[in-house]
Please model this.
Amino acid sequence: MTPNLDTTFAALADPTRRALLARLAREEATVMELAQPFSMSQPAISRHLKVLEEAGLILRRVDGTRRPCRLAPDGVAAVDQWLDMLRTALARNYDRLDQVLAEMASPPKNPKRKAP
Amino acid sequence: MSKPLTLVTEGDRHVVVTRHFAAPPELVWRAHTEAAIVQRWVLGPDGWTMPVCVCEARPGGKIHYEWSNGKGGGFSLTGEFVSLTPFSRIEHVERMHLPATTPDNHIVTTFAPDGAGTLMTMRMELPNTESRTAMLASGMDKGMEASYARLETMIQAGSVR
Model:
């Protein structure tokens, strides 16, 4: 099942989870390995990982007694999509600025508002 | 039609945005430094307004933007100007309040003559690679750009059911 974008973005809305993703972007890691640099308990990390897993952002595999996590390709694609949305929002601002600049360069000669 | 915007990461801590404008650097500069003009375009998606816009374009001058969607949604940005070289360069620091405060984003924006227009280059530096990743992942490119954070706010609001 593909998690919906709300779930993905809700998962991304937490700084710890974003940091965990940044860490997993470098390499696969276990809960214990992840807990170390974050100075958080393993259960706390596990809870964040569960949210990320349900959001489709990470995958876990079984390796003996270890359950290492890694970034999910589909989840990464969702982030790419998100970046595109951001780029679009920025582009919208600058398109608006184009219009503002055009008006600054040549103020309208016939303002709609009539002088009193 | 939209002009091409580039948004790329550079090294571990930087994000670089470029955009061409069909107006001379002086006008593009004014659009980035005069509150009454900033208020007209730094809005992100349609439907948002900036009821509060403080933009004291001098070294040490304050930056304070507040956005509203008219339906109770809102967030803000504060910052300080570091240095300004009229019509060519702006250096400032900014952070978003969502309401959680994002890491400081140190931004150098340059305006260079480009044909009859201007090439704007905005280079953002985050405190570390994690905060850049977080910024990109969460749309804080704004730290630099209001619209990014606005989108995140909307998404966060939409995801809290």
